[in-house]
Amino acid sequence: MPKITKEKFKTEHNVFDDFTNRTIFKLITEGHFDGIESTIALGKEANIFSVKKGKKRLILKVYRVNNCNFNKMFDYIKADPRFIGLKGKKRNIIFHWVQREYRNLMKAREANVRVPLPITFKNHTLVMEYIGKNSEIAPQLKDKKPKDPQKFFEDIIKHLKKLYKAGIVHADLSQFNILNFEEKPVFIDFSQGTSIKDSNAEEYLERDIKNISNFFKKLKIKIDQEKTIKKIKA
Q1: Residue 5: left (phi > 0), alpha (psi -120 to 50), or beta?
Q2: Distances (CA, A) of 61 to 25, 41, 104, 152, 173
Q3: C-alpha to C-alpha distance for 151 and 4, rounded to whole angstroms
Q4: β-strands 168-169, 178-181: how paired?
Q5: Is the pLDDT of residue 12 over 50?
Q6: What DSSP assignment string belongs to 133-182?
């Protein structure tokens, strides 16, 4: 690939602010990927892009610093014992939010939970594994209902149990944050994931199970939420 200059990069990517341009350019020069391929999703707080490293696809998640609800972020992160003493400055909170997602993904991978492999993070950006086949990214569960809902639900609970044993609660789980890749669940969006030592962890776990249960009940699956939570914590 031809060597990219900072000036050429800024010209090609004038949709980004200067700070984001500098951050992405740094990731490229460090060899994490060669360049941005296409937009996958434009969210309220983060944008998702596919990027290429040779013939391999990766995911680039860019938090929108000016759009992030950093008060909500701070409320979540200040109760996480891994981030005790964190000061409430906006940019600092967002940078630690990205670091938190990276650490949660790493811990989940170590526990053999099915999540994208995190590759690196810098400032308000996160690079991770692309889940999908060729140019077709794996769909969210909400967009591709499983052929065998009972099996899929049981697989979700099995992985939540592994995650809990590793000391993590997802805290934002729903049909929006689970991919259906080849009829198997892949968990994404781990920025709200917190330690089970967090004073709010039990509340978050109950909310996760309620969200997932409500989705699968619509698929005619019978679920006892209390028994499901006990199974995860056993």
Answers
A1: beta
A2: 14, 10, 15, 27, 18
A3: 48
A4: unpaired
A5: no
A6: ETTEEPPBTTTS--SSHHHHHHHHHHHHHHHHHTTEE-SS-STTSEEEET
Confidence of residue 234 (pLDDT cuts 50, 70, 90): very high
User: Distance between CA atoms of 108 and 167, rounded to whole angstroms?
Assistant: 9
* pLDDT value at residue 7: 55
Residue whose pair of structure tokens reads 């805290």 in the numeric block: 171
Six-digit token string for 200: 């709010």
**pLDDT the model gives residue 85:** 62
Q: Looking at domain 137-233, which of 1.10.10.10, 3.40.50.720, 1.10.510.10, 3.90.78.10 is its CATH number? A: 1.10.510.10
Each domain of the chain, given as residue ranges in start order, spans 6-133, 137-233
CATH 3.20.20.10 fits 6-133, yes or no: no
Q: 89-123, pLDDT tens digit by residue?
A: 677 778 888 999 999 999 999 999 999 999 999 99
Catalytic residue positions, numbered: 172, 189
Separation of alpha carbons 153 and 136, rounded Å = 24
* 155-193 pLDDT tens trace: 999 999 999 999 999 999 999 999 999 999 999 999 999
How far is it, in rounded angstroms, from Cα 77 to Cα 229? 23
